[in-house]
């Protein structure tokens, strides 16, 4: 199943340790997508969760975590995250659940 992203959201991130403040979520998302595309679902899932911990309404991370969970057979959990993505960004048609 191909994964497509058409935009990068403008993000607010609290200052903290670790990766740089603004680029950290973008970097994490890029790394997570690389794992996802390569079939390393466990690694992708961990990074999507890390993004959501930093930004609980990050539509791409919520949607992609839902996708990973569906691919791993965790359908009920997948639906939960896909719905959260839809609520976070209702104008993104790819998130429609």
Oligomer: single chain
| Total DSSP helices | 4
Residue share in helices? 55-70%
Low-confidence stretches: 1-17
Mean pLDDT: 82
Tell me about the largest β-sheet: none
Order of helices and strands: HHHH
Our measurement of the CA-to-CA distance between the termini, rounded to an integer number of angstroms, reads 16 Å
Radius of gyration over alpha carbons?
Answer: 13 Å
At a glance:
The chain has 97 residues and is mostly helical. It has helices spanning 23-37, 41-54, 59-71, 75-88.
In words, what does this structure look like?
The protein has 97 residues and is an all-alpha fold. Helix content is 58%, strand content 0%. It contains four helices and no strands. It has helices at residues 23-37, 41-54, 59-71, 75-88. Helix 1 (23-37) packs antiparallel against helix 2, helix 2 (41-54) packs antiparallel against helix 3 and helix 3 packs antiparallel against helix 4. The protein is globular and about 25 Å long.
Question: How is the topology of this model organized?
Answer:
Layout: H1 23-37, H2 41-54, H3 59-71, H4 75-88
Descriptive key words:
97 residues; mainly alpha
């Amino acid at each position: 199943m191909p994964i497509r992203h058409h935009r990068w959201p403008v993000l607010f991130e609290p200052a903290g340790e670790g990766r740089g403040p603004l680029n950290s979520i973008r970097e994490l998302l890029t790394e997570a997508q690389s794992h996802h595309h390569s079939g390393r679902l466990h690694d992708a899932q961990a990074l999507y969760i890390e993004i959501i911990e930093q930004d609980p309404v990050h539509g791409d991370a919520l949607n992609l975590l839902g996708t990973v969970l569906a691919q791993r057979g965790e359908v009920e959990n997948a639906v939960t995250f896909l719905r959260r993505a839809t609520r976070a960004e209702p104008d993104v048609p790819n998130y429609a659940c």
